Known about the structure:
Radius of gyration: 22 Å
Number of helices: 9
Mean pLDDT: 86
Largest sheet: 3 strands, antiparallel
Number of strands: 5
Strand order of the largest sheet: 3-5-4
Distance between the termini: 67 Å
Amino acid sequence: MKAADEQLGRxxxxxxxxSELGIGIAEIQQVLSVVYDxxxxxxxxxxxxxxxxxxxxxxxxxxxxxxxxxxxxFLTKPSYYDTINQLQAHRSKKKLSPAALETLAIIAYRQxxxxxxxxxxxxxxxxxxxxxLLEKELIKIAGKADTxxxxxxxxxxxxxxxxxxxxxxxxxxxxxxxxxxxxTIGETSE
Length: 190
């Protein structure tokens, strides 16, 4: 590998490391064009990303390079999840309430959705939960509905995707995988 390629790889690695939420190829290209005072090809960036990804696959590395929601970021390898989860649980003093989690789940599965629709599903007012979710940047305002009064539409944010490690809402668990079926009318259990 040429010294110039190695230097480019280190610059890209530094950008990924410093990026709080991940960084896409276009943003890497923009930043490096300023640094190098010349246009860096997308192919050169992709090649460097593959080299970085391969380097972090080694067993002695605790991180891996992942592409989530069209952005590259370093994530801890799955074998360290339990340890990291313990740290997060220890540090997380301000957890979401059950009402906020329920509201977040409704938004994730039914987005874009209005507050009125959320309240109809939950059966209670959700002003506080929606406010807390917006404050924590787990949801975002996705526009306005084309109905009477033009109510605000809510959807999950990129931070939600990053936090749960999913690329799109299609990666959310299916309801049949979450809800355990109970006996229905006419069936018996032994």
